[in-house]
User: Fold these one by one.
Assistant:
Number 1:
Amino acid sequence: TQLLEQSPQFLSIQEGENLTVYCNSSSVFSSLQWYRQEPGEGPVLLVTVVTGGEVKKLKRLTFQFGDARKDSSLHITAAQPGDTGLYLCAGAVGNQFYFGTGTSLTVIP
Amino acid sequence: KAGVTQTPRYLIKTRGQQVTLSCSPISGHRSVSWYQQTPGQGLQFLFEYFSETQRNKGNFPGRFSGRQFSNSRSEMNVSTLELGDSALYLCASSLVVTRETQYFGPGTRLLVL
């Protein structure tokens, strides 16, 4: 069992559609991060959410941190082919750093 | 400013051999973390170094080790390779030991035959 569970695991949508990716845990995190990883590259940090209930927007991407700081969501509006990639949530518990199970998104033109 | 570089990018080894991977962090960054990425287990934290000292370690066997040099460059070593060690090994650098802002390299893809 992974500390950070993401759903869905795979997502294939048409360009222009909206989608939401979820990141859930039974542990409390002081902060959670979201990354996007493209094939052959390392993950790239998109955002860090720190406060429970916090909402951050990055162009068409909206990130929310749960009130209890155990979960987070990523919503993409009007997805574009350039959004294709592996989305990962991540956070630290104590001295350990954990990545989520990942959501592989494919946006079809 | 140059990003995180990792060498080599690809590596093929056989079971029982050992391997050393190298990571050069962004200039000025003193913290380097290593991760293993596999399709089955996803991204898992290996260890973190700051100022030549290992600060944190993940749940990996002692075959996995690392070190950091005075110029912040880091190496990780895997001894007695097993088939299950085939993975993408990622290095990330950050200014300090917070991991809130990590910059990842492209990784080294290791295949163990």
Number 2:
Amino acid sequence: AQSVTQLDSHVSVSEGTPVLLRCNYSSSYSPSLFWYVQHPNKGLQLLLKYTSAATLVKGINGFEAEFKKSETSFHLTKPSAHMSDAAEYFCVVSDRASGTYKYIFGTGTRLKVLA
Amino acid sequence: NAGVTQTPKFQVLKTGQSMTLQCAQDMNHEYMSWYRQDPGMGLRLIHYSVGAGITDQGEVPNGYNVSRSTTEDFPLRLLSAAPSQTSVYFCASSRGPNTGELFFGEGSRLTVL
């Protein structure tokens, strides 16, 4: 069965410094991978997705992620953090393993951006 | 374009009461799903459907029922609410795993006293 591990529950960075949010996945087949962002008391917004095309995926607001099959990772990065990036971020995996059709979420990483 | 619409946005129930959370999408998506979000636990899949008449259990299905009589609608029923079901519920739809991302409703905050 597929699963997702977000390695950090909280990450703090200073404004203008790089952001790294880590995600490892487990999947029996070729997965699709997604990053979503949730601002406080808001819904979920798609940042970017990987669906077996280019391994380096660019998303909205300057975020990008690299799919590394050998490391089963899909880490989210941004060169320079902005105050508006403070939110909770979720890594999601989906595949069709064993005839199931599920999107499985990680437990989330809360990003804090310090002025 | 409405996307995914959930109702109600807020609801307070007493233990043992029943209710239905409504979800409708206008994107002709075959795949629909319900999640609950609790602090520190991310979003956990309750039930999902890959098309009208087809439903299956997710990670935390106990205490919840679903049905899918049309492509557009996917209601979630709590037959006998318990305090452990206090949560924020999200409905989401997509063209299907491996083909597209999930589109989410705005969420429904449920409190069970």
Number 3:
Amino acid sequence: QVQLQESGPGLVKPPETLSLTCSVSGASIDNYYLHWFRQPPGKGLEWIGYMYYSGSTNYNPSLKTRVTISVDTSTNQFSLELTSVTAADTAFYYCARSPMGTFYFDYWGQGSLVTVSS
Amino acid sequence: EIVLTQSPGTLSLSPGERATLSCRASQSVSSTFLAWYQHKPGQAPRLLIYGASTRATGIPDRFSGSGSGTDFTLTINRLESEDSAVYYCHQFGGWAFGPGTKVEIK
């Protein structure tokens, strides 16, 4: 049974860096695209970006200058870093995967609420 | 960038009824890239439909997807209480999802 679980601080001060990790169990992350999304309370879902397990990345242009997604195949985890956060970055953050060659996200994490506040 | 619009915003129906959810794109979308997701509070979003009409593994046949071009539909037959959720459409490659349709079961 494939499971993804986000973890990280629930509170981040501006203008620090938000860091989250997604732990994948039940399957190797090899040959998958690994994604991060966010949803501010009461607002829509936004795709932050993704990384192929081998290292190539693609980021949402609106966040590109502040986002880094990285992967650690030895621990079957991937991570999100978002720098210079503001209150506008307060959101539920979700990780997900998509099999290589497909165009959908087949498994997601439950989400992690990150609040940006001093 | 392609903008997805979903309607209605909220759908309130009784068990056993049919729900028809609409997803409209601002320009033509390849059906290959259109998916629907179900999201319940506190839970992981769940893939329902991909390629506009293919049910994901384990999804009951009460759920069906159709459409092409700019107009896509998710139909939920014989509604059950467990279908209460927000449903999102998404075009793979687009950074934003549709705004979602909230389905409430009376």
Number 4:
Amino acid sequence: QSALTQPASVSGSPGQSITISCTGTGTDVGGYNYVSWYQQHPGKAPKLMIYEVSDRPSGISDRFSGSKSGNTASLTISGLQAEDEADYYCSSHTARYTVAFGGGTKVTVL
Amino acid sequence: DVLLLQSGGGLVQPGGSLRLSCAASGFTFSSHGMSWVRQAPGKGLEWVSSISGPGGSTYYADPVKGRFIVSRDNSDNTLFLQMNSLRTEDTAVYHCAKGHLRDGFDPWGQGALVTVSS
């Protein structure tokens, strides 16, 4: 059982927007602005898409955005494209000086 | 460009040991915390361990605490993960990554498969 809860799957049509949630507690997501999001294509290493809740690394499309409210963080992908089909994971710093990951969300582009 | 090149991995019997290495280039290695993250076959990501830039502070996930040791050689820009008393449930692809507890992990190494089986 993962420390952070994500939906197992989310789907959308090309051009649509989708949102993936990541629910933790006050000792991880809710307590710190250190939430990250990763994209992983099959057989590939994960790629950082969002850090510190809403910041994008250089080179990441602005179609990807992050936010947080209380104990739940969210990743929104706007203008969904076929290449966005992948697994997405959230992570958070925790009060125990560890890192918690979500169980992952499979994004399908219909 | 920042590059992390991993070596090590392989098949080991339960109770055995293995050491993973991660050679870094393209950034000032000693100024950045580093981490290990694993992914069991068909499963999600699991954080394993992190180490501060100078190497004086280390952190471990509960499942590996007391069995795994993270270290680094800043003179050689290399990160290590010494894995002892290996269990079948440690079977996974292990990735090194640039970044510490509060950072986003970026980039990631290519991964090394560790299989614990008799």
